[in-house]
Write a structure and sequence with these properties.
Layout (H helix, E strand, L loop, with lengths): L1 H13 L13 E9 H14 L3 E7 H7 L7 E7 L1 H10 L9 E7 L4 E7 L1 H6 L4 H22 L1
Antiparallel strand pairs: 1-5, 2-3, 3-4, 4-5
C-alpha cells in the first residue's frame, strides 16, 4: 500500500505531460524533402536566387552550437525578402514590418534528410487585415511555393 502512495505522489509532483504543438500558427507548411540536409540547403539557396528573392540573412544554430563544442543536427533559418515588397509592405502597414524577412526553417532529420518548415505569407500578413498587404502576400505565396517546388524538385 505504501508503494501505491509513493507512485501517486510522484505522479502528482511530475504533473501532466504536454505534447509539443509543431504548428502553432495558421498557414504553417512542413515539407519532408527526402534530400540530404547540406545538399538541400544549397538547392534552397539556388531556388531563392532563381526566383529573384534576396537571401537577407541566415541563422545557423548548428554553427553556433559547434562554436561552444556542442554537436546538434543541421538547423538553419534562411530569411528571404525583396526591396520592392518591403516598400509595399511598409506603405500598407508600418506595424507589419516586424514580419519581414520571411523565414524558411530547415531541420536535419534522424535519417540525415532535410525538413523545411515555413508559414505562407498570406497567413503571416493576413493577421493585419489590410487589403494591400493581403494582395502582396498572395503574390509572395506564389513565389515561396515556387521556391519550395524548385528546391524539392
Amino acid at each position: 500500500m505504501r508503494w501505491i502512495s509513493t507512485v501517486l505522489l510522484m505522479l502528482f509532483l511530475v504533473g501532466p505531460v504536454r505534447a509539443e504543438n509543431p504548428t502553432p500558427y495558421s498557414g504553417m507548411q512542413m515539407v519532408a524533402t527526402g534530400q540530404p540536409f547540406n545538399a538541400f540547403v544549397d538547392k534552397l539557396k539556388a531556388a531563392i536566387k532563381g526566383n529573384k528573392m534576396g537571401l537577407v540573412a541566415e541563422a545557423c544554430a548548428t554553427c553556433g552550437a559547434k562554436s561552444i563544442g556542442v554537436t546538434i543536427p543541421g538547423n538553419r533559418v534562411l530569411m528571404v525578402y525583396r526591396p520592392d515588397f518591403a516598400v509595399r509592405m511598409l506603405k500598407a502597414s508600418e506595424a507589419a514590418g516586424i514580419e519581414a524577412p520571411l523565414r524558411l526553417y530547415l531541420t536535419e532529420q534522424p535519417d540525415g534528410t532535410a525538413k523545411l518548415t515555413y508559414r505562407l505569407p498570406s497567413h503571416v500578413f493576413g493577421a493585419y487585415e489590410v487589403p494591400e498587404l493581403d494582395e502582396m502576400a498572395k503574390e509572395l505565396d506564389g513565389i515561396i511555393e515556387k521556391i519550395v517546388k524548385d528546391a524539392v524538385g
